[in-house]
Give the backbone structure.
Amino acid sequence: MAVLRQYLTYQGIPVWRHALIIQWAAQIASAILVVALVMWFFGNMAFAIDDREIPFGFSFLSREYQTPIGEHILPYESSDTFLYALVVAATNTVVVAVAGVILATLLGIFIGVCRLSPNWIVARLATVYIEFFRNVPLLVQLFFWFYIILALPTVREGYVIADLFYVNNAGISFPSPTASGAAPALVWLALAVVAVVAGVIVHHRLVRREEETGRQSYPFVVGCATTVGVAAVGWLVLSGIFGEAPFAVSTPAPQGRFGRIDGGVTIRAGMLVMLIGLVIYTASFIAEIVRAGIQSVGRGQTEAARALGLSPMNTLRQVTFPQALRVIIPPWISQCLNLTKNSSLGGVVGYTDLTNVAITMTQTAPAINIFLMLMAAYLAMSLTWSLIGNLYNRHIRFTG
Amino acid sequence: MKPLIKYMAGLAVILALVAMFACRSEEPPAPATGAATEPTTAAAPTDAMEATAAPAATDAVAGNNQGESRLDAVRARDKVICASRNDVPGYGFLDDNGNNVGFDIDLCRALAAAVLGDPNKIEIRLITAAERGPTIQSGEVDMLVRTVTWTTSRDAQWGNYAQTMFYDGQGFMVRKDLGISSALELHDASVCVTLGTTTELNLQDFSNQNDLHIEVLTFEDTPAVVAAYENEQCDAFTNDRSQLAALGTALQNRADHVILPETISEEPLGPVVPHGDDQWFDIVKTVMGILIYAEAYGVTSANVPTSATGDTKVDRLMGLEGSFGQEPLELDDTVAQNVINAVGNYGEIYSRNLGPEGINLPRENGRNALWANAPCQDCPKGGQIYAAPLR
């Protein structure tokens, strides 16, 4: 023992009691464990693939997909490749995820604030909403909305508003701008971006001025007006340059003997069900997160703001909510992730999302490879949400 | 920018994992191209793991390895596991007592009667259409009987198709009040279809060939397809004709709907077994053959002979004389007696589920009649139901 102690020392301390060495040993041991576990999983899969001669490889990606994709925002032909079909499907998922997160966040904040309202009825209604929708499984809710939408009139008997808007159980159609051919689509896309950026800059400037001088200057209204103004001026200028309007308006209209709506933009029933279902479900969780965030701000803050003469609305907007955000953002990120991942339930209600298309692909291509790509795609989407959330979280954190 | 670094690291891990698989699928000297841009750790484990992991994995893979045949595994667990369904009348559907009954279920029962002597020793795994491939590929079930169309790419990727037990073809169902008499009139129509089926693929081919611009609505479950069709979310729905007939029985007013005359595809349906166990593959083929030849020879569940009848063919089938290969398949000599006693012959199974006592699909003079019932040698009246001779 004495000999052991003599040799197994580091900086005069026996190695088994040396904090540094113990820490390193623990790190190395856990690293080995993780690597071994991963290797065992992949090894097992590799073995099974060989053993059962399961086809494996990514060469299918450049083959023609030759299968329909029901709903597609990007242009799609059945002669496109598997890879492009995956991109088309992923775009569908991203659209539902982004639109869903924006709407769920707005609705969630509204419900969460209502829940804290001094008005008894409003507060109770918000409570009922939250408890109902977060305690019923999402799948059940999706089926519920699916059957609600199915109960709408059919496409041949649906509601038509001013020959521009069509509402029926196949979806909602409304007019949309399309590139007229006079100007490339990119030109007016650029115009839209410029207009939005201009609005944001004006909004930012006015907020800062309001904070510095205390003069009320309605940043949101002025910002929106700027966006509209820049877009209008840009449109006139572009019309002048190209000799005609840079984009045309495409209006939906029934077509063919079945009266299916063509033209404009159609949000098909499947996407509608997914959006309604995901937004209402996720908003109930976000509402609770918002409530928790607001309640985490010290009562003194509210009292001080009221003592300074701020209205209840301004107290919330200027004092309580900005501080609550620090508590709200991290759990809000998980809700974004949940919503994105839950969009993979689209198949049950007829929405052609990424998972839906991937499952179809397993008919004619190796399943394991497709599901690997599917996992990678969802992981990438989730990481992107985390990045956005974390960057924002850094932006609003306490400094100094 | 810590979050950004974390994000990039996460993406790198994803890419590394995909690259790891990508290079597995390349030729042996793999790590060169695909993984070169990735951290070397991505490529390194692939070689190592193939060497080390194989012994470790042997236990984890169920049943069909070198050591144990699937037949041994089935007998050890005393149960045949089949992947099937319970949502289409005739094939697999819950009856009034909550029992799963149907054509597909009976084929599974026949197999259990053959290898375990008891048709009730089965376990039915309910799966969706889209789950069929992965389920049979993984080898976790002994047989897949869920209205699976035999196609060459499925045969190559999924498992082995034992025997065509039903010849089907894809058709369309529409409302009568649309006034359509042909599928070629479905121009710009919206058509509902089940996700992950050959139906989905055939629909695209049909639409392309005839320039129909059909709009497609896919649902994971067939009941949702029917609901969407019934509420006119789509103008037509497409499936195998026999399933259209079966599902039609569940529509509220069957008389308002019509199945269009066109059959746009060949859909031979039958049981599938996992790749990699020839004996098991042969057993399933033999059991299917027993069902078919029992009908051809006039043996029904009511008249299974237990002693020699003098008719050589019948006696050989019943295990009373000679052999049709029971021994190498490790089946009892009297395996056919067990099977026919348990589920009856092919004709009985058909009429119980798909025929007059089931969803009433006509069989007489159709493709699904026995070839052996043709009135004369090589004359065209017989059907296509035919199996390898039992001898």
